[in-house]
Automatic annotation (TrEMBL), chain A:
Protein name: CoA-transferase
SMART domains for this protein: CoA_trans
Pfam families: CoA_trans (PF01144)
InterPro entries documented for this protein: CoA_trans_fam_I (IPR004165), NagB/RpiA_transferase-like (IPR037171)
GO molecular function, one term: CoA-transferase activity
SUPFAM superfamilies (UniProt xref): NagB/RpiA/CoA transferase-like
Taxon lineage: Bacteria, Bacillati, Actinomycetota, Actinomycetes, Kitasatosporales
Organism: Streptomyces inusitatus
From TrEMBL, chain B:
Domain of life: Bacteria
Protein's UniProt name: CoA-transferase
Ranges for region Disordered: 1-25
InterPro entries: CoA_trans_fam_I (IPR004165), NagB/RpiA_transferase-like (IPR037171)
Alphabetical list of SMART domains matching this protein: CoA_trans
Amino acid sequence: MSDKTMTPERAVGELRSGMTIGIGGWGSRRKPMALVRALLRTDVTELTVISCGGPDIGLLAAAGRIRRLIAPFVTLDSVPLEPHYRAARERGGLALTEIDEAMFLWGLRAAANRLPFLPVRAGLGSDVMRVSPELRTVVSPYEDGEEFVAVPALRMDAALVHLDRADRHGNGQYLGPDPYFDDLFCAAAERAYLSCERLVDGFAGAVPQTLLIGRHSVTGVVETPNGAHFTSCAPGHGRDEAFQRMYATTPWDAFAERFLQGDEKAYQAAVESWHQERTR
Amino acid sequence: MTGDQNDGNGRNDGNDGNQHGGGSAVSRAEHCVVACAEAWRGDGEVLASPIGLIPSLGARLARLTFSPDLLLTDGEALLTGEDGSVEGWLPYRRHLELVSGGRRHVMMGASQLDRHGNQNISRIGGGEPPERQLLGVRGAPVNTLNHPVSYWVPRHSPRVFVTRVDMVCGVGYDRAAAAGPSASRYHRIPRVVSDLGVFDFETPDRSMRLASLHPGVTLDRVRAATGFALTVPEPLPYTRDPGPGELRLIREVLDPEGLRDREIGAVAR
């Protein structure tokens, strides 16, 4: 079996401007933040991003890397609205294809199943149909004759996800209460990059249901301890609420200046020194 | 209406402490909790999904009293009992399937709400770019087409209760009817609870009706705070007081720190 381990730089080095990229996690929960930070260090831009959005979207939108976002929401969870994303949206910095959460899930499933669409009841009567005039409906061929929204497959060129554990071949394990949609992101993408808190040699003794992602759907494996920071990565660690509040209230340039100038190691060191200053 | 309940509630006067200004008069927040709880009366064995503190207190009050079969989550992926014990698993993917299956009643927030119950949490300004980017549609479209959806508005104002919402996230009665039988089949908005009263759509054209005023609120105040004409029944009822057992549960079990009063504000006493 092939060894798929790589650095964050190498993983994002396989991304190109104009690609459609899916980002796993949910809101401010288990986002592949180290990979997003690595992406910020490249000049890749004009992205179409598919995400249940959190600070991943805030960072990329503030840096002007997103051409179009496909999402049901963007939130920091404990801070309801994502300030850097909002600012980018309000200055016309990125287009939004806004779809409902169920439309999002079924869109991922359609892509993972190589179907052009799947029918859902959600969306009818709402303005998601108005803001995305390309959305179509489909009529049941059976007796009921009901009409549904035909959610198009959310296919992507690449997916970025973060899990608790992975082996060198791309098998991934989540240890928290919710898998989110990370396996579907990997299955819906041409290429998927899986970062993990810790690289392991195997999953002896693991509860089988925690083995979420299979190696057949993963291109590269990246070990990034604390790589979801500042989002939560339960049960390993919760959200860094203090840091998130600072992120949400600091002008973008000042935040980027202090935390995003160097590599991932420099970021983690800057976070540590910020916490030390704060508690002094 | 917010008269002294000392005689009736069987509580020790001292329990009120400073939070309730030295009396055990029912606070506005407590009327709101009861009004929210009533949304889940008779719902049976469905998931109660309260968004926000007052609806959460209401849902838990309903389960502890008149709707014991309700399911509740820990706010993440676990279904939990009143003591915090785990009784089931409900990650987002299963949650969305439960929504589609209809065994749920959510009480959502609303940045804007119109007279037919269309709701907006996405953005202010319907064009591009938006004047204010808010949360996004989230699950409002799937919720409103699949199971009962009620709303909670902590600060009733003409900015929330508008003639027309800037983006329809939660579908109202007029839009559901216009979208056809697949949209209206499971569509229902049982009630809207605000800090001023309880509202429903029990009118011939399914437009908003004032169902009850919270004690201490005047009809004029509700009208001034609402950006469209409301149907008002005659006589106009008041929102019921919590019973003694309910007051005890709210004050001693569900919210001993009195967080509910902070959400509503000092005005609501």
